[in-house]
Design goal:
homodimer; 337 residues; alpha/beta; 434 Repressor (Amino-terminal Domain); Rossmann fold; 3 domains; 6-stranded parallel beta sheet; 6-stranded mixed beta sheet; 13 helices; 12 strands; 17% strand; DNA-binding; transcription regulation (chains A, B); transcription (chains A, B); Cro/C1-type_HTH (chains A, B); HTH_LacI (chains A, B); repressor (chains A, B)
DNA sequence: CTGAAAGCGCTAACAT
DNA sequence: ATGTTAGCGCTTTCAG
């Protein structure tokens, strides 16, 4: 069951030096040893395929060089890209991200949070909506493991944070649609949205107001972040009798596409649709989806950077990075006829 | 930087017992202690938020309870679902999967393989195409870390393995198209395909033969597994002058959809398309994609099961599980006119 | 029923 | 330039 590991002692014996010597040389602290000794140790290491035991190493260093990452849904391309960015940065920083998807399930999320902590991750990136303030207070705080929050903020007055200018995202979406002449519109978003999604809504409402339209021209329709939910919301959208829909994420829009398609309806002819995120897929659906773009790979990268920075300088002030969004106009929106 | 951890010693002191007692009780080996003692220890543990130090624990047990998972592309929904299955099984088995995506890059793959080993994973699930036999021989074998291969087999005579009946998948695809009357067909697949993909090709060719068509009725077109590559292959497909295309994965098909769409061509009217994998997205594109379904979530689950089984019973015979595929007929294929 | 003691593989003061 | 020693936090004989 267990791997027969070569230990540092064997390398030391084989090279005819002490354990210390090997340790120092292998950790690039071997300046004080002769070139000859260093070469010998390195050679033996290679020959025996020595790999240091992280468990022993971490036990002393009190660091596992692992980062825990909690996301709500691995199957959403948005988060795949987020992870992509995190992995990219972690390679440079020689950390290993441990990624878990909680599938929007509070129980699962708490489970993974606990496990991650058990495995003594050095820090946490929590990009999960369902995590509760209590879970963080109860599990994370006592261990003093630094964490960073993304996509939510009700919890987080003291933690480092990544934010996206979601208010502006909603505003841009709303301005785009109203400029196209739409007056009655719907928004598709989850029932208990996190703060970032509520910001999108707030921005969208602001645009409606700016355009001089009455607030009740906007119909809110609840749907979870999945293609299926978007699809299933189709009838409600149609019943709401609007000419344009703002989907709080792209996945939702793609689900809605299908529902409209099955009913023989045409986008944007019968209904203009704008999404949110700008996932790759947007360019591969028909019609290509107009959306609000978030720089998600960069967001992932920066999340990791901020966290690692915090680990290395525990005492710096609370960090906050805010990312801009932009409108990416494609073919799913058009002037109201 | 480091978390102030509560140690077992503090729990012992607080509870007025020895370290041994705490260890035994917390590891469910406390049968020999009085109920009273057990309760007290458990209570103190709760109160102090004690979490055992995995590094110390693993150092002794020679097991990290972690599994390394290497996949080629996290952004392909097929692999997201694969991971999903792995995570599911791992929860039951109390292992933690560490997932890394190598983005079809040999260097990256070798890097992650090494890192995973450094972090002393107990076993590996390698579902990555670009991994080389040498990398496995050089890195994995000496450490005697059990591993399981999926989606390739040239390497693996002795390792446990998960296989999918890809020959049959290709055959089914070919039979479906020939039964619809198609005579000239193309197949889209990566240039240096892994064995599983080549099996799909072999099955497809067998179907052509069965149908009494000449072998050169099939045009092979190379494209990596990405939407972009499928899109970029469009012109080649059109130049090949075929009436049907077999895409070696669904993602490719969706890319091709876009290329055809931009040229005003119609699926399946102008070209029948069949994919491979049966990702969720297939039902959300227009027309819904006919495909060969692999039970990918189950494959992930079984991969983890097999590996964990191997870890627990190191001496059992080499394990091999073979999964069936099936044709899922939707609207992207039709009779040749 | 409970505890003392040894030791997992490694790093880092502190000698020499 | 190199080695000795102590100890990280835990599990596990073994002795009471």
């Amino acid at each position: 069951m267990m791997a027969k590991k070569v230990t540092i002692r064997q390398v030391a014996d084989e090279a005819g030096v002490s354990v210390t010597t090997v340790s120092q040389i292998l950790n690039d602290k071997g300046g004080r040893f002769s070139q000859e000794t260093r070469d010998r140790v390195l050679a033996v290491k290679e020959r025996l395929h020595y790999v240091p035991d992280f468990n022993a190493r971490n036990l002393i260093l009190h660091s596992s060089k692992m980062l825990g990452v909690l996301i709500p849904d691995l199957r959403n391309p948005f988060f795949s890209s987020f992870i992509h960015g995190i992995q990219e940065y972690c390679r440079d920083a020689t950390y290993m991200p441990m990624v878990f998807s909680a599938n929007h399930d509070v129980k699962l999320e708490t489970y993974y949070l606990g496990k991650l902590l058990e495995h003594s991750v050095d820090g946490l990136i929590i990009a999960s909506a369902s995590i509760t303030a209590e879970a963080i207070d109860k599990l994370v705080k006592p261990l003093q493991v630094p964490y960073l929050l993304f996509d939510q903020n009700q919890i987080a007055n003291l933690a480092d944070r990544i934010e996206v200018d979601d208010y502006n995202g909603g505003l841009l979406a709303g301005q785009h649609l109203t400029e196209l002449g739409h007056q009655k519109m719907a928004i598709l978003l989850p029932a208990n949205s996190t703060i970032n999604v509520r910001e999108r809504l707030r921005g969208f409402k602001a645009a409606i107001k700016q355009a001089g339209l009455p607030a009740d021209n906007l119909t809110e329709i609840h749907a979870d972040f999945s293609m299926k939910a978007g699809y299933e919301a189709t009838q409600k959208v149609l019943d709401s009798n609007v000419s344009a829909v703002f989907c709080a994420d792209d996945i939702l829009a793609i689900g809605l596409y299908r529902g409209l398609n099955e009913r023989g309806l045409h986008v944007p002819g019968d209904l203009s649709i704008i999404g949110y995120d700008d996932i790759d897929l947007d360019q591969y659906v028909y019609p290509r989806l107009t959306t609000i773009a978030q720089p998600v790979v960069e967001i992932g990268r920066e999340s990791a950077r901020l966290l690692v920075n915090r680990l290395e300088k525990p005492d710096i002030d609370r960090q906050l990075i805010k990312f801009p969004v932009k409108l990416v106009q494609r073919e799913s929106t058009s002037v109201k006829k």
